[in-house]
Amino acid sequence: MAAADFSRLIAAAADTIAAHADELTALDQAIGDGDHGLNMKRGFEAVRAEADAFSAKPLPDALKAVGTKLVMTVGGASGPLFGTLFMALGKDLPPAPDRAALTTALGKAIEAVAARGKSQPGQKTMLDVLQPVYEALAQGKTAGEIADAADQAAEATVPMKALRGRASFLGERSIGHMDAGARSTALLVRAVAEAIEGI
Amino acid sequence: MSNVGIVIVSHSPLVAEGTADMVRQMVGDEVPLAWCGGNGHGGLGTSVEAIMGAIDKAWSDAGVAILVDLGGAETNSEMAVEMIGEPRSHRIVVCNAPIVEGAVMAATESSGGASLKEVVATAHELSPS
After folding, report:
1. What is its EC number (chain B) (predicted)?
2. B25-42 confidence digits (pLDDT tens)
3. Which residues of B12-50 are buried (b: 16+ CB within 10 A; e: fewer)?
4. Fold of B3-122
5. For a pLDDT cut of 70, what percent of chain A falls above it?
6. Cross-chain residue pair A79–B40, CB shorter than 8 Å
7. Is B124 a catalytic residue?
8. pLDDT score for B71
């Protein structure tokens, strides 16, 4: 991937998180500790600040650098979780991946996130978006269809009962609210899918 | 220092520091001890960078036991251990125990010269399972 293209992906990701930071915080205030929007914004702005340096690296190293930066700057459990997602993608992707390589790497990255969070799909977390995105990618869906699948999957966390994270303390009361991490994951998927389609 | 080090990681710097005070009251300076709390930007939270720093500060060749409060503190501590990497990561354990009681009991065990395994087991005994 050309440096300019990776820069565009970083900008698209940071833009969508910044634009939705208040919404993410509101979701997290409903059933969590209310810091998700601010934490994610801080992390992605820190990534944006180093976009030029990161984009100059080969794709695997660039993704690892993004993940490490998120780990160091987000300041909540989302830091290691989103950081692990990007670091694991960097570990498994070749420098110029095709769809098959991206699918394989995303599958492994989802396993890494599940291990980091000691979680699995169905527990009202970001995994509930990542897993359908992986399936849509594997089924050859278009970028637009993958982004739609991510939005629907985030929406589908509303009736779920949280079994991991701060929301799980609320038990039944977590039902009826969208998981903030699922929403931010869907936002990132749409931003990246649309940016990649434009490349 | 040959006694196992203790690291306290809370979302709140006040909780972390207060817990460390209680540990010091029990064991004085016989145990390497460090604490961190807060997201590094003035808010509640935990910082991987700060946790790595605390592990360095409390480092002992006998190992380090980390006591945490809520989920994010555990996830960030596990991330910090992974980023510190081998070979030291094999001698760092994130304990499953209540932070205050766990830290005081683990430090007391450590002050008697117990191994990392014994210190961690003492902390874990406090956790309902």
Report:
1. 2.7.1.121
2. 999 999 999 999 998 888
3. bbebbebbbeebeeebeebbbbbbbbbbbeebbbbbbbb
4. Rossmann fold (3.40.50)
5. 99
6. no
7. no
8. 86
